[in-house]
Structures are given as structure tokens and as C-alpha cells.
Amino acid sequence: MTLLARPIDPPPESLIRDWYANAQLLDSFVVPIDAADVSINDLAVRALGSPPVWFKVLIAIRDGVMGPLGVRTSGEVRRAHSDKAHIDFFPVLEQSADEMVLGENDSHLDFRLSLLRRRDERGEVLIATTAVHTHNRLGRIYILLIRPFHKLVVRATLMRCRRQR
Predict the structure, then answer these.
(1) What are phi and psi of 148, to 5 degrees?
(2) Are 14 and 114 in contact (CB under 8 A)?
(3) Entry's InterPro entries (predicted)?
(4) pLDDT digits over 122-157, tens only?
């Protein structure tokens, strides 16, 4: 098995499997991990907490461009969910022993990010699945623009999780 994050089919056991149908963006990436004694919460914090500077720059650009168009900025999302558990600005929506679902609903699109730990005879892997449903033209344009960056961000996020042992 490769040590790099690679694309796979979305996992059928995921808590967000109902989001797969009609998603305008749906992808899954997997990376092997060695984290038998690490909780899914700790894995999610490794992956999404304390993002690198280049990710913060991308989010600042996204906020600067999309905020004036009526899309909630990362800061607005964080403040809107200050009463809920969150990792960075991503609200935690659902959690099981081996999966955490983060996401947000907005006027232009709704998204879900699943971080799922899967164990089998070969060891453990962490799968990141993103599902997005758009509501209007702005949402569709947004997905078109961010798709190339999204794939890089997800792969880098998984690799960060793998490196932090």
C-alpha cells in the first residue's frame, strides 16, 4: 500500500453515505495510519487543527472573495457555531467511535466532511470524504473554482495527520 494519500471510492459505511446521491462534489482520499490508540477526535484535530500558513492564506482569499457575495466567512461560521464542538472553524455535526462528520449549510451550498477510520487485516487507514450539494449558480461556480485546490488541501490534510504521531 502506498504511503501517500490516494483517491478511493466513497466508503459505503460512512455516516454521510446519504449525501453521495446527486452531490456536485464527491470525493474520498485514503492514507494509511498507525494510530490504534488514538481517538477519532484526536485524528481529526491532527488533520484539521492548527492549519499551516498556506491553508490560512487560501481561506483568507476565499473569505475576501466570497464574503462580499453573501457567503459566510470562516470567522462567521466559527461564531455561528460557538456553542458547538468544532475543529478550527469546522463545526462537528456527528461522531461515532471511528468517524467524525463536520460541515456547514449555507445559502449557496451545504457540505459534509467525513473522517473515517477503517481497520482491516492490512492495518488502519483514515478516509476523508467530502460531499457537497449546491443550491444555486453561485454554489456551482464556487465548486468549479475551488475543486483543484480542494483536492490538494484534502491530500495535504491527510498527510499532516499521518506525519503527526
Answers:
(1) -60, -40
(2) yes
(3) DUF2867
(4) 788 999 999 999 999 988 988 988 888 888 888 888
